[in-house]
Amino acid sequence: MPLRQYCAFIVLVFLGMLLSGVIFISSNQMSCKQAVIDRIFPLLQYNQPSVLSGRTDVVPISSWLAPIIWDGTFDPKLIDSIYIPHNIKIVTTVFALGKYTRFLQDFLESAEEHYFSGYRVHYYLFTDQPEAVPSVKMNENHTLTVRKVPSLDRWQDISMGRMEILENLIANELIHEADYMFCLDVDTKFYGRWGAESLGHLVGVIHPWFFDYPRDSFSYERRPESQAFIPAGEGDYYYTAAAFGGVLEEVYRLTKTCHEQLRVDRENNIEAVWHEESHLNKYFLYNKPTKLLSPEYLWRDINASAGQIKVVRFSHVAKNNAEVRPNL
Ligand SMILES: CC(=O)N[C@H]1[C@@H](OP(=O)(O)OP(=O)(O)OC[C@H]2O[C@@H](n3ccc(=O)[nH]c3=O)[C@H](O)[C@@H]2O)O[C@H](CO)[C@H](O)[C@@H]1O
Ligand SMILES: [Mn+2]
């Protein structure tokens, strides 16, 4: 090859390499820039919220403007995109005394499948038999603390005694530990997502038996001698004591008040018809929950059905009360 042609060839090869280098660097810079944009403004695709269409078979808001959470009223992906970056922590309490330890395996395993996946969760489990707590594999960021409590002879005392234990737990340990708290029954199982859509300042769950009843059929305490008394003609919803929650300060106020009312009733030799559940209903009547969870969040039995319940997220399990309770 003549020298001139050879030199021209070398120059062309060099220019080619230079050009591809420039293209490589600039495309790399572009993708870095894109990564930064993606991080600041993540592209989240979700259906446009509508002011005109949505569920019409249930009411998604209370008359004091607290949302009532039903399937189809929220977008789970959108909810998570809002809450997950805040790195919140949810304390969850559960009690298993006497024969109720048999419910723990299903409760914990199903919770690890469906309850606040991707969030920080700290379970506090109160039991009279720490050795009977099954070992269940926890998700990352989920932890379990077992606390021993004395056995009691009456199931009603176990159920009511939860208010005092929770009040003390919050006051002594939790105020600076977590953001939110839920207090749950153990004779239950999760079947579907229970996530950040349930979070609120003060959260009540509508009882699965009474959601379609008129208020005068609710099983409120009707004797004026009890601190849980609610007169006829009053009441909003009938709430379950098997699940309630909120921010720590609110759950503290709730448990402290119910504990105090239970104490006064005991001094007056009266026990409300549905124990702490009656007191909880009184509390929620005069301290309105800021968010209400539909009976999807505590259904009566996975095999029972109702047209309005599109998803069962959490449900009581069938149990033989006479066999599992220490007394009748
Ligand atoms: C659906 C619903 O609203 N459930 C409530 C209802 O009946 P339940 O029949 O659901 O009450 P229950 O027998 O589940 O007792 C409540 C909870 O106390 C604990 N426990 C009870 C007995 C025992 O021997 N060991 C033990 O650990 C356990 O965490 C249990 O989940 O009424 C109770 C009080 O009247 C509570 O208010 C429950 O939350
Ligand atoms: Mn129960």
TrEMBL record:
Binding-site residues for UDP-N-acetyl-alpha-D-galactosamine, renumbered to this chain: Y100, D185, V186, D187
Keyword Membrane assigned: yes
Residue numbers binding Mn(2+): D185, D187
Keyword Transferase: yes
Catalytic residues, chain numbering: E277
Entry GO terms, CC: Golgi apparatus; membrane; vesicle
Main location: membrane
Cofactor(s) essential for the protein: Mn(2+)
A Pfam cross-reference name: Glyco_transf_6
Subcellular location: Membrane
Transmembrane regions: 7-25
UniProt protein name: Globoside alpha-1,3-N-acetylgalactosaminyltransferase 1
Lineage of origin: Eukaryota, Metazoa, Chordata, Craniata, Vertebrata
